[in-house]
Amino acid sequence: ETMFYGAPFGLSTHTLEETIIGEKLGASYLLLSHIFHTNCKKNLPPKGINIIKKATKKCSIPIIGLGGINEKNITSIIISGAYGAGVMSAIMGSENPYESTLKLKNAMLK
What we know:
The protein is α/β, with parallel strands linked by helices. The protein contains five helices and four strands.
C-alpha cells in the first residue's frame, strides 16, 4: 500500500481521467464525486453510477463514491464496484446523525 509519511492517503477526483492519474501519482485510494445530485454542487450535473463502474475497471486501488449519497442509493454505489461510500449531507443535515449513520450502514450491508 502506498504511504505518505507512514499513512495511506487519498485523492479527490471528478473525472475518469483524474482517477487514472491519481493512481499513477501513488494514491492509496480515490474519492470519486459527485455521483448523485447534491446541494453541495447544485449547478453541476452528477456523474452518475457508470463513472464508478468505469473507474473500477481502470484502477486497481479502492474507489469511494461521494456526492448525494443517501440510504436509498448507497447500495448502488457498492454494487457498481466501489470500495465504499463517502457521505456528508445525509448525516450533517440530519436531525439525528447517529440514527442516519446506522441507517446508511445497514442499507449498505444489504
